[in-house]
Amino acid sequence: MKIKIVRVKTKHKIYEGKLLESYDPEIILIKLENGYNIGLKKKEILSIEEMEETKIEEKETKIEQNKSLKKIAIIATGGTIASKVDYSTGGVTPVKKPEDLLESFPELKEIAQFEVYVPFVLDSSQVTSREWKKLAKICANLLNREEIKGVVILHGTDTLHYTAAALSFMLQNLNKPVVFTFAQRSIDRGSSDAYLNLKCACLAALSDIAEVLVVGHEDMNDLSCIVLRGTKTRKMHSTKRAAFQAINDLPIARIYHDNKIEMLSKNYKKRNEKKKVEVVPLFEDKVALIKFFPGASPEILEYFIKKKYRGIVIEAFGLGQISESWIQRIKKACKKCVICITTQTIHGKVDPYVYAPARKLHEAGALFLEDMISETAYVKLGWLLGQYDLKKVKELMLKNLANEVNMS
Ligand code: ASP
């Protein structure tokens, strides 16, 4: 394969580097000497000079696996973690073939044997309930195979907690770990979190925690990862490597870079390989998650009711207050729709018995979801509405089904 080294002149500066493939026809993408990629607007470029062509041998790598180790299934779905370095350009491209992944992380073969699946490649902002159902079915099939000891799912961070919550409900009678992991920095960067996260996720997949988990960097160091429950975590930082944190919950375990696992909680479901996983891949898409804001008009609610939404989670202020101008409409809406209340404070719980606006909302028929986080509440509501009538859904929303709620 040939790659081009170019010198690009703009009004302000001259850049030299490898020409990368650009997905935007208006932008020229270059990998600079220092390893960073830069995008330059075509209209701001004064000249492009081709310096030389370099030839790169395309090599085929066959990864030998140690047959005496336990087997893990890895499902790569896209996002920063599911990318590989393209040595011909120095850039990163999504993993499209299973072999690509093991080629990028050869050290993993000392931990387990792997089967790798790539059912779709998406930035996680594009993932919908369609992908959740697909993943749940794939996981159930894998988990019911005796030789697979756990499943690791590589996922973009943006909506990882929604997918983890969806699988926590869709996979019933879980027998082995299902572990989501991610990267905030791609593997071509020195500060990448991809390797430690993936290694710790594989160790978690071999552990005795039979829950849907999220595993990733604990803090800014490269020393440990934390193991979080899929229904009780959320992306809490847009750039830091410790992107996910436990919300209203303790991390279940800590995994050190030297492979040691320290249990931090006793409250988790244990591995039981005799169990058979059942999958309930159902979801009602007419469900909304609304963040309340000062002065929000009740017309917003009207819109969803007109469009026949069957469930709405309102992320309210503090203990569960919203403007009293919504109360009458909520009372009417509760006849055809399940309305749930969570808090914008993220940490803590809602309580209808402290302030009058919350009490009125509760009396109007809204369900106060204790310490359930909004994203998990949204997913649970859609999953229940995909199966049951309103009465049953209201009853189950306040029952703990996948460690998603601590009832007071
Ligand atoms: N936008 C990316 C995604 O969520 C970010 C990441 O991979 O972490 O897919």
List the helices and strands and how they pair.
Layout: E1 2-10, E2 14-20, E3 27-32, E4 37-41, E5 45-55, E6 71-76, E7 83-85, E8 92-94, H1 98-104, E9 113-117, H2 129-143, E10 148-154, H3 160-170, E11 171-172, E12 178-181, H4 194-205, E13 212-217, E14 224-229, E15 233-235, E16 244-246, E17 253-256, E18 261-263, E19 278-279, E20 287-291, H5 299-306, E21 311-316, H6 327-333, E22 338-343, H7 356-363, E23 367-368, H8 374-385, H9 390-397
Parallel strand pairs: 6-9, 6-10, 10-12, 12-13, 20-21, 21-22, 22-23
Antiparallel strand pairs: 1-2, 1-5, 2-3, 3-4, 7-8, 11-19, 13-14, 14-17, 15-16, 17-18
Helix pairs in contact: 2-3, 3-8, 8-9
The chain binds aspartic acid (ASP).
Aspartic acid (ASP) binds next to loops.
